[in-house]
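Cont'd.
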Amino acid sequence: MLGNYFLINGKFLAVDSFEKKEADINVYEVMRVIDGIPLFLREHISRLLHSIQLSKRVFEIDKKELGKDIVQLCKKNEIEEGNIMVKVMFSSDNVTVLVHFIEHFYPSLSNYTKGVSVGLLKAKRINPKAKIINHTVRDLANNEIRTSKSYEVLLVDEQNEIREGSRSNFFGIKDGKLYTAPLNLVLKGITLSKVIAIAKSNKIEICYKPIPVSVLSNFDAAFLSGTSPKILPISAIDSTTFDVKNALLLKIMNAYDELVCSDIKRYISLLK
Ligand code: PDD
């Protein structure tokens, strides 16, 4: 836990008074803070509520109050850049809402210009559309990332098809079209939904199709989308290499950065 304060059930407490608790199921969100403002706040809170529904739990959250608390948490901690975790912890007899800053790892400038290498991992997220902590997949992914010295691993299912990264979504590019897994099989990333919006306004086609590992070499380019990576070019998946200067990829990277800037500016103007 980073910062001086965290938030528990709507109350701000000093970080050194934090007591770790286990829960039966943790529904969560990770959002990025830029210039002291939580990026795409409304979208993250809506997805949190959707994940609670998908996990078949019933718990009322006041969206506006939670949003205000998150903004207040940024201010109280005086943190301008970082990541915040919002966790709704369900136990047999109670529910706890915990919000705090966590460690973040953002790609370097050279990761954006030269791309990153990515590995493959046979693993499956249960209830893939919901953002629920899954320690087994996380531990397997961390282990593979460490041993293969890659930036991320792509999760491959029983059919040998790629679904998404362990904490990102995956896109391939071929002949000016985007390819990604069917949305019912993955977590619909907030970043992915921005890629969809960019594609729509630029008349770029997206094919939502299973992506067998065997067709990877047909792609001209490939990228990850996610809160921390933003739009990050992939230079290689195992031994298959990709063009990190693909025109469509560069266009999506720029368009996404513009969306980020306008969301932060919009929020700052609301606060004035
Ligand atoms: N992970 N797929 C999975 C399995 C994820 O865990 C994430 C995000 C994404 C991308 O979602 P978004 O664009 O909203 O970040 C896709 C977060 C950041 C994490 O667990 O740290």
